[in-house]
Design goal:
Pathway: Carbohydrate biosynthesis. The chain has about 325 residues and is of the alpha+beta class. The chain has two domains: about 5-185, Fructose-1,6-Bisphosphatase, Chain A, domain 1 (2-Layer Sandwich); about 195-320, 3-Layer(aba) Sandwich (D-Maltodextrin-Binding Protein, domain 2), CATH 3.40.190.80. The chain contains seven helices and 18 strands. The protein has helices at about 5-10, 15-35, 60-75, 205-220, 235-245, 265-280, 310-320; strands at about 45-50, 55-60, 80-85, 90, 100-105, 115-125, 145-155, 155-160, 165-175, 180-185, 195, 230, 250, 265, 285, 290, 305, 305-310. The strands form four sheets. The protein has an eight-stranded mixed beta sheet with strand order 4-3-5-6-7-8-9-10, sandwiched between helices. Strands 12-11-13-18-15-16 form a six-stranded mixed beta sheet, with helices on both faces. A two-stranded antiparallel ribbon has the order 1-2. Strand 1 (about 45-50) and strand 2 form a beta hairpin. The longest helix has 23 residues, at about 15-35. The radius of gyration is 19 Å and the shape is globular. The structure holds 1,6-di-O-phosphono-beta-D-fructofuranose (FBP) and magnesium ion (MG) (2 copies). One magnesium ion (MG) binds near residues 61, 106 and 108.
């Protein structure tokens, strides 16, 4: 099986970008080890702190953030970072080429039940001559990503990665510490009979989403004339991994539950990297009727609607909004 470096170099990936990806993966291997140790790691449970978004931080959120932040800032490859667990962007090497946004631990509510969690990351180039301390260097649409991926800490530790030359899956060989290519050129089936949404929010959705999901639930007795299955892992990494593995539609739609927070998922370090992986695998990733990666961000912790997955099913869902 092939290791990640030669695969990326064959794609024409610049050596400094490869080194940056490997730097991120070094931290992820450490997180994978801690997650695998579970109760023995001493990092389960909550802290007494909240992040800037008002969410209680788990010990593993804080630890994962620290591991990624330290290794990235010490590497010299990174001009600045933006993290879910950092209130503001953090400046790195002033002359470095890249900026990295990340969700150090996605699926935090799964930590204490020994269920799926992961790390999501997005890499862009900093604008020429920009100031490392200027947060506006992150205000670029997702189309500008040069690499994006996630590491899923599941029964096996897997990496999904794209540098714009398709999406590939790698599995961590824990005996040697290498990520080995286990699926070349992921292709999401265009058709599906599986959807993922947190149904408990149903009454708060906008009418088009209510109607769309109602028709899926009606199954072969409804207008779709076929039965749909539902899955919800409560970790975007897990749900998107299933979509990459066997297709499906995943959505966290706009809702009215909390008028101050109409959307849940964050653009820079959740929606954008997942959109890049999904589009590179032949799927669609949409928010408010436009491709997620075309959105011009205006804040580092900006939240967006997410509808992604199998092409024909995402288009079907969007047709309810017309
Ligand atoms: O708890 P809910 O409302 O089902 O939300 C689940 C969603 O929240 C998230 O866990 C948010 O990520 P964090 O754990 O990084 O805050 C997504 O991964 C997931 O899709
Ligand atoms: Mg998350
Ligand atoms: Mg998180």
């Amino acid at each position: 099986m092939r290791r990640l470096p030669p695969v990326l170099l064959e794609d024409g990936c610049p050596r400094d970008l490869l080194s940056l990806v490997r730097t991120i993966l070094a931290a992820c291997k450490e997180i994978s080890f801690r997650v695998g140790q579970g109760e023995l790691s001493g990092v389960l449970g909550s802290t007494l702190d909240e992040n800037i978004q008002g969410e209680t931080q788990k010990k593993l959120d804080v630890l994962s953030n620290q591991l990624l932040k330290d290794i990235l800032l010490e590497s010299g490859y990174v001009k600045a970072i933006a993290s879910e667990e950092e209130d503001y962007t953090v400046a790195g090497e002033p002359n470095a080429k890249y900026i990295v946004s990340f969700d150090p631990l996605d699926g935090s509510s799964n930590i204490d039940i020994n269920s799926l969690v992961g790390t999501i990351f997005s890499i862009m180039e900093a604008p020429e001559g920009s100031d490392a301390a200027d947060p506006s260097i992150f205000m670029q649409p997702g189309r500008k990503q040069v690499a994006a991926g996630y590491v899923l800490y599941g029964p096996s530790t897997m990496l999904a990665l794209t540098t714009g030359k398709g999406t590939r899956l790698y599995t961590l060989d824990k005996t040697h510490g290498s990520f080995l290519l286990t699926q070349d050129f992921v292709s999401i089936p265009e058709e599906t009979q599986e959807f993922a949404v947190n149904m408990s929010n149903q009454r708060h959705w906008q009418t088009p989403m209510q109607n769309y999901i109602a028709d899926l639930l009606a199954g072969d007795t409804g207008p779709r004339a076929k039965n749909f299955n539902m899955r919800w892992i409560a970790a975007m990494v897990g749900d998107v991994h299933r979509v990459l593995s066997r297709g499906g539609i995943f959505t966290y739609p706009t809702d009215t539950k909390d008028p101050k927070k109409p959307n849940k998922l964050r653009l820079l370090y959740e929606a954008n990297p997942m959109a890049f992986l999904v589009e590179q695998a032949g799927g669609l990733a949409i928010a408010d009727g436009q491709p997620i990666m075309d959105i011009e961000p205006d804040a580092i912790h900006q939240r967006v609607e997410v509808i992604l997955g199998s092409k024909n099913e995402v288009e079907k869902c969007l047709s309810y909004y017309k």
